[in-house]
């Protein structure tokens, strides 16, 4: 299940990151799950919160988990732990939301955060009873894209790879769906163009400088000669 909570899913802060251990979006039932809000100063001013089927934000508390500093620990996961988890600031704003699914049986091992454009992505299909990697079929948006393999590798990830992925085993069943997103690095081109523009301007100024210097010197000499002749 994938939750969309207002505009929270689009909220990003460069100051804090939600770290999940194990580092994946899908998790088995009856296992320990740790979620930490980490910033550059390693402060404890962030709190882990979740939004579930109850349609309300919940604090990490003794009712479903325990909070130590900025780390929230679920000792034994259950399916109702499925939801959106994020880091909340002291002012009440939520940052870095992550969809987490808790499921028994088969899960898809997929990344927590968006994959950077151009990177390689590897997806695996795991089975709870043995924690082993299954030879399974992999689907994107309901269409079969690779069959009977232990891992699916997407090389040079781009925006076209975004979508809902899941895996299916003929006997063990299928995993829930996970959304894979791609982080575009197109800003690099504009950044490079800015640098080229600045360099071009500097080179133009430096090229003109000698002519300006000669002009100043000539004006100075003319003024001096005029003063001498007037004397």
From TrEMBL:
What Pfam families does the record tag this protein with? Answer: Ig_2 (PF13895)
The organism's superkingdom is given as: Eukaryota
Any one Gene Ontology MF annotation carried by this entry is: transmembrane signaling receptor activity
Q: Which GO terms describe its cellular component?
A: external side of plasma membrane
| UniProt keyword Transmembrane, yes or no | yes
Q: Where are the transmembrane segments?
A: 198-220
Ig-like domain segment(s): 14-103, 115-181
GO biological-process terms attached to the record: cell surface receptor signaling pathway; immune response
What keywords appear on the UniProt entry?
Answer: Disulfide bond, Membrane, Signal, Transmembrane, Transmembrane helix
This protein's species is: Cyprinus carpio carpio
Write down the InterPro entries for this protein, in alphabetical order. Answer: Ig-like_dom, Ig-like_dom_sf, Ig-like_fold, Ig_Fc_receptor, Ig_sub
Where does the record locate the signal sequence feature? none
Provide the protein name. Ig-like domain-containing protein
């Amino acid at each position: 299940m994938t939750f969309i909570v207002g505009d929270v899913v689009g909220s990003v802060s460069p100051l804090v990151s939600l770290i999940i251990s194990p580092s994946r979006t899908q998790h088995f039932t009856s296992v320990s799950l740790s979620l930490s809000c980490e910033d550059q100063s390693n402060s404890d001013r962030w709190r882990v919160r979740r939004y579930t089927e109850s349609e309300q934000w919940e604090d990490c508390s003794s009712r479903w988990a325990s909070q130590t500093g900025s780390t929230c620990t679920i000792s034994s996961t259950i399916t109702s732990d499925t939801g959106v988890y994020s880091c909340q600031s002291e002012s009440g704003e939520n940052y870095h939301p992550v969809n987490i699914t808790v499921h028994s049986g088969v899960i898809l091992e997929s990344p927590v955060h968006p994959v950077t454009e151009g990177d390689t992505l590897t997806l695996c299909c795991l089975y709870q009873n043995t924690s082993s990697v299954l030879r399974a079929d992999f689907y994107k948006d309901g269409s079969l894209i690779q069959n009977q393999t232990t891992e699916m590798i997407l090389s040079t990830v781009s925006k076209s790879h975004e979508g809902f992925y899941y895996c299916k085993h003929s006997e063990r069943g299928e995993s829930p769906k996970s959304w894979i997103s791609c982080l575009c690095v197109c800003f690099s081109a504009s950044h490079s163009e800015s640098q080229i523009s600045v360099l071009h301007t500097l080179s133009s100024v430096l090229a003109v400088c000698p002519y300006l210097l000669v002009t100043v010197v000539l004006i100075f000499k003319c003024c001096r000669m005029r003063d001498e002749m007037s004397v």
